[in-house]
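no rush on this but wanted to send it before i forget. what follows is a protein written twice so to speak, once as letters and once as structure tokens for the fold. mainly i need to know what kind of three dimensional shape the backbone takes. thanks a lot i owe you, the record is right below.
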Amino acid sequence: VSVKLSKHQFQLLMSCLSLSLSTHLSFLFPDFSDRISKSRRVGYESGEFEILGEGCGVKETPQQKYQRLVNEIQELTQEVDTIQAATKESNAEERLTPVVLAQQAAQLKQQLVSAHLDSLLGPQAHINLADPDGALARRLLTQLEAAKGSRGSSAGDGKPTALTKGPDGVVLYELHSRPEQEKFNESAKMAEVEKRLAELEMAVGSGSDKQGPLSAGAQGTSLMDTIELLQARVSALDSATLDQVEARLQSVLGKMNEIAKHKAAIEDAETQNKVSKLYDVVQKWDAMSTSIPQVVQRLVAVKELHEQAMQFGQLLTHLDTTQQMINNSLKDNNTLLTQVQQTMKENLVAIEENFAALDQRMKKLSK
């Protein structure tokens, strides 16, 4: 059997094998018919992954069984660790706790190690329990290199070289990959990098509350720019530069003193001007100050007069309202009196008629 793989084909093979192998597809009875029937049609059947597919008619070898047990124990240990980390309180019911499951998984792993299957099955059955995926990947690479070497030697010598074959006489390559474990490893690496960056920032002091006078203008710049800025500031502290700075400070201080004196004089002049204006205003109102008490008394008297006028107006309004009510009552009484008079007239007419009729009857009876 000769295997010829280019670099691109080898990379494609490794990328395909690095996918998740937790499930398998069954090509024995595919069903892609419509979904009119009650039963659900699912195309290819799928199930949990096994080293030898179900119904293939091939029995597991001891090496394959050993590898399967190691992988299952590794998965059981990881699941128990996950459950143990997620469990906050232990239940009082009698059942296996995550701690007991972890102990039993460790005992099973110890039993596999103590079985010395490595010496019985050969070096090809050796699996690193700490990193089984990496061990299987390295074994696959070794077998591919051996297959390529055997192809080259057979082409040179003209004789085929016997390779490791399976029960069907074919070369077996096995690769167990756990994409979720790789994701966890990448997340752990990223967390470690972020932690180191945080420690570095704390050591350097990138926070705004830790900036000193020398690093006032270095925020948001690169490290090289910050170093150059600090170097320029440090170089400005030599003796020659300090003498020049001191001379300039002396001149600036003298100018500041002169400005302070002129400012005091200007402020005094402005204050005097405001005081004189205020005195003029007081002098203008001095003549009117004698008449202010009389004006106040007059205003008080006018206030009382206004209050009385307001009360008089209210009384007039009340009187007008009362007069209107009396007029309305008189109108109603006149109407009622007219109705009573009309009724009395009608009643008198009726009484006269009744008396006349009564006289006629009396006359008839007397005859």
